[in-house]
Amino acid sequence: MTKHIGIAACSAEGAALCYRTICSEAQTIMGRHWHPEVSLHNHPMGRYLETLEGKGGWQGVADLMIDSSIRLASMGADFVICPDNTVHQAYDLVARASPVPWLNIAEVVAGEAQLKGLQKLGVLGTRYLMEGPVYQVKLEALDIAWETPTDSDKKEINRIIFEELVHGKMKDSSRHYFQEVITVLKRRGCDGVILGCTEIPLLIEQQDSVLPVLDSTRLLARSALFTAMQKKPVKKRA
User: Fold this and answer.
1) Domains of the chain, start order
2) Using one digit for the tens of pLDDT, what is the confidence trace for 26-36?
3) Quick check: 144 and 136 in contact, CB under 8 A?
4) Is the pTM of this model over 0.85?
5) Could you give the CA distance from residue 220 to residue 193 in angstroms, rounded to a whole number?
6) Which of 18, 43, 155, 218 has the fewest CB atoms below 10 angstroms from its CB?
7) What is the torsional sign of CA 119, 123, 129, 131?
8) How confident is the model at residue 231 (pLDDT cuts 50, 70, 90)?
């Protein structure tokens, strides 16, 4: 018996990639056309942004995530994942009130970094994510150093995410921009880079990066799959 996965979605593109990864990679374990049960609930992304930018703040974001977890639990979900890095700033508020357990995307990614022996990571994502504690706390707990881009690069990365990637627009010019930012992070001593927005992996893959990439979307999906299968992932050092 496999566990039922609940996906609390925020952006459609990131959630879709996470869902597709679960379903496609499950087949290598369970057999062709097989995957665990998956249910998805999605408050409009606009509601998240309106709440975050208004009076609701992070508690308001947490309330939306908790509501999704309640709905997903009623559908039979045994645990929940959220393929959105930014809203994990509300994770502690959510975990205390959710009727079912959650996997933490930053914890999953930080664990993979430790497994690969990475010592200093560049963190890419929304401005909220790059300037917030989501990855910083998890990385520092494992004695992994981190860097973020310059303020001007943060602004442009944030623009690309919200004006292009969440709408499914993948431009070569934006890919080149991310590549240049990653190259600068390498010069600053980073030995890996976190794709800490769940849409960035749609634009940047390993062959596009001079640094090893940590794809938060697919890592979360794989962690959910192993949790549903009640198996431990095979641990291999890079």
Assistant:
1) 5-104+218-229 (3.40.50.1860), 106-215 (3.40.50.1860)
2) 999 899 999 99
3) no
4) yes
5) 16
6) 155
7) positive
8) low
